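step: validate -> pass
step: tokenize input -> pass
step: predict -> running
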Amino acid sequence: MRKPIIGITMGDPASIGPEIALKAILDPKVQQICRPILVGDASVFEHIRKQLSLSVEIHRIEDVGQAKFETGTADVFDLKNTDVSLVQLGEISAHAGQAAFESVTKVIELALANKLDATVTGPINKKSINEAGHQFAGHTEIYAHYTGTKKYAMLLVEENMRVIHVSTHVSLREACDLVKQERILEVIDLLQDGLVSLGVSNLKIGVAGLNPHAGDSGLFGWEDDTEIAPAVRRAKAAGYDVEGPIPADTLFSKAATGHYGGIVAMYHDQGHIPFKLTGFTWNAQKKQMDSVKGVNITMGLPIIRTSVDHGTAFEIAGKGVASPDAMILAIESAVQLARNK
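step: predict -> pass
step: emit ->
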């Protein structure tokens, strides 16, 4: 099959984003499955290349058709939007936020124009983005806005753990108010689409309760009985293999064994905490992560978007120790989605 063209954003130039992007595209298995193009400022990647003594040529391009896709070469769609002297590694700034934001909007633009088969995003700093004047909670919301998407959700993937969220970047108080039948049904449908697109054979879906003990028949909250349970019944009637609401403190341990093909979490931390316990490995002696795995996929978009599911890691930016594991996994997922599109 034709290898898909994957656009990869640099992320925040003050973060580990440029480093893990370069390291990832130099990985032989990435070169075997796709044709990667980095999207951002070529001077940022050149700076990182020199700083880390990476054996790669930075090839600046202004059109996808100019890419070489050769081993040892990093094709960079050069936005020429970053003054490296103004970027302090590990620090929040409007300048870095603007550069990161523009790399995201450009990769969306290229994908919508069918010049890319899929997009992969590096980590951004939400504070830097907002200081640059862009009031978005994160990548998911940026993609939804610039693609005109109304129904979307965040799906996290790492081995057996596949978790989609009813809500993400809102306060916990607001998250409770967003637990509604129609939204839960919508997310179940998006999860099923994601499982099929990823080639997952187990389509059994578990739906988490919102309250402790899934409300315990109303003793600890009413949302499980009045919103989640009716949504699950309606999903079953529509032909989905789905169970719930299930107390979250037991649901995720079953999911980790592969009992469920995917999980519906009611809010951000309910899904992210067990997910990151699966994919993140902390080294207590070195006081840093040995491995950071996990892919973030935005479901419901007209284009493919995957991402690392970790942050900017400002504390290790420029030190050469950042792991590209999550970026490689995100690229692999983007390739799989592109082939199954």
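step: describe -> The mean pLDDT is 92.
step: cleanup -> pass
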